[in-house]
């Protein structure tokens, strides 16, 4: 028994000595940081007529991946992409480069995509006049649509007449079904002859291809008509030919009644 214990002791001591003599592995050295990417880019219109098309040219160093974000949900990984916007407007364009360690640099500009010939003081034809169709409202004048202040007065082309509704409660909807669909990009509203507190103040304009599914096109929350018989033009972006357009009046200037002289839906420019 004593001999067995002696043998175990000898092996244990040898194991400890071996472990003590074993060299430790050197600690891994941290990988040096790569140089940070450096980026820049230019943006230029590609055509003197097509103001929506742009050539983007990026320069980048110390990178592995690049990404363009054009501000309209479109992207590219090319170094010099061409891009065409659907509409005019202000777009946040960002060019980003990233190295293999995940470090990145970016440059961003606000690009003003604008038609040099666009005039916000002008509006194209009224489709209510040139195409025609049918107006319906959620609640009409007490005398009906053909009354002296009935709903049809709001689309008769005469600012001296008006649509008047008593008991306004913020749920008035005017819907116009065109005889044929048309791409609208503007609309107008004209204040009536008296009582500014009856004027519309907040509304939503929508379009629909089938009269069931509606798309928001434009809205106002705090509009003020400074004068009587004042026509205001509103422009919006759209490239769909809608057959139905509707105007939902949510708020007026505090009166219990509502009035408006004219409403039109228009081609964007003459």
From TrEMBL:
<feature type="signal peptide">
    <location>
        <begin position="1"/>
        <end position="19"/>
    </location>
</feature>
<feature type="domain" description="PKD">
    <location>
        <begin position="68"/>
        <end position="106"/>
    </location>
</feature>
<dbReference type="InterPro" id="IPR000601">
    <property type="entry name" value="PKD_dom"/>
</dbReference>
<keyword id="KW-0732">Signal</keyword>
<dbReference type="InterPro" id="IPR022409">
    <property type="entry name" value="PKD/Chitinase_dom"/>
</dbReference>
<dbReference type="InterPro" id="IPR013783">
    <property type="entry name" value="Ig-like_fold"/>
</dbReference>
<protein>
    <submittedName>
        <fullName>PKD domain-containing protein</fullName>
    </submittedName>
</protein>
<dbReference type="InterPro" id="IPR035986">
    <property type="entry name" value="PKD_dom_sf"/>
</dbReference>
<dbReference type="InterPro" id="IPR008979">
    <property type="entry name" value="Galactose-bd-like_sf"/>
</dbReference>
<dbReference type="Pfam" id="PF18911">
    <property type="entry name" value="PKD_4"/>
</dbReference>
């Amino acid at each position: 028994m004593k001999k067995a214990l002696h043998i175990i002791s000898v092996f244990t001591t040898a194991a400890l000595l071996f472990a003590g003599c074993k060299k430790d592995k050197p600690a891994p050295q941290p990988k040096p940081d790569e140089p940070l990417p450096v980026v820049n880019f230019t943006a230029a219109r590609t055509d003197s007529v097509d103001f929506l098309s742009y050539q983007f040219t990026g320069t980048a160093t110390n990178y592995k991946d690049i990404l363009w974000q054009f501000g309209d949900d479109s992207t590219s990984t090319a170094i010099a992409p061409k891009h065409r916007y659907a509409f005019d407007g202000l777009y946040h364009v960002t060019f980003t480069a990233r190295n293999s360690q995940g470090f990145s640099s970016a440059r961003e500009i606000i690009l003003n995509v604008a038609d040099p010939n666009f005039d916000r003081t002008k509006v194209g034809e009224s489709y209510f006049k040139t195409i025609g169709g049918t107006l319906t409202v959620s609640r009409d004048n007490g005398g009906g649509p053909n009354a002296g202040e009935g709903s049809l007065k709001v689309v008769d082309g005469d600012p001296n007449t008006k649509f008047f509704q008593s008991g306004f409660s913020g749920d008035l909807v005017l819907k116009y079904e065109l005889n044929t669909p048309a791409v609208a990009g503007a609309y107008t509203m004209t204040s009536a002859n008296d009582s500014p507190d009856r004027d519309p103040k907040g509304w939503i304009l929508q379009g629909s291809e089938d009269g069931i599914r509606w798309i928001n096109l434009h809205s106002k929350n705090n509009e003020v008509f400074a004068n009587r018989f004042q026509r205001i033009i509103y422009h919006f972006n759209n490239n769909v030919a809608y057959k139905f357009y509707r105007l939902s009046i949510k708020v007026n200037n505090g009166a219990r009644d509502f009035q408006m002289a004219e409403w039109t839906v228009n081609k964007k420019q003459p």
